[in-house]
Amino acid sequence: MLVKIVITIFAKIFIMHLSNNLLIEELLHLTENSIQSVKKFKGLPVNQLNFKKSSHEWSILECIEHLNLYSDFYLPEIEKQILANKNNNHAAIFKSGIIGNCFAGLMKVKNGEVKKMKTPKDKNPLNTKLTPTTIDRFLKQQELLNLLLHLAKTIDLGKVKTAISLTNIVKLKLGDTFRFYVYHIERHIFQAERVTIAQNI
Predict the structure, then answer these.
(1) When you count CB atoms within 10 A of the terminal residue's CB, does the N or C end of the chain come out lower?
(2) Structurally, what CATH architecture does the domain formed by 17-198 represent?
(3) Per-residue confidence at 2, pLDDT binned at 50, 70, 90?
(4) Burial class (CB in 10 A: 0-12, 13-18, 19+), 124
(5) Which letter does DSSP use for residue 44 in this model?
(6) What's the predicted TM-score (pTM) here?
């Protein structure tokens, strides 16, 4: 009996259960919010887009370029897995994996705060020479993300797995990959918006 209680508590803490449709609708909503936020950046002068609060912090464009670098990996991987599994029946409920739920939780903006994490060198755009085309690339990538989320409505988000950029050893359920990826975007748009606040924009 005690073991059953412990397992139930463990599952509630580390595993998320949510309707496939509700999950995708949430991610579509967050994606649209990110798109609208970044479109506002397009109207800013280049000097404001490149403004840095300190030498070791990112500018608005560096925040966006960081997201572009991740998208270069995740969008092709997600698209490949969706196209390979487009005829699979899908479950009505998505159950996250323990690792995937943990990764997604680490990315999520909670109460206006984010957990600090070290950025891999190949995804760190610090001191990169960037132009507003960085924003155009991001918006193009978000169009593809939007399309993939709609296509995923007919996919089993728990059965289909994707590779991740951090390691070749771990694969995540597609639903967790989407959550991790979209929450990661939300995280760094939030970071970019804080740079605008520092400039009183």
Answers:
(1) N
(2) Up-down Bundle (1.20)
(3) very low
(4) middle
(5) S
(6) 0.89
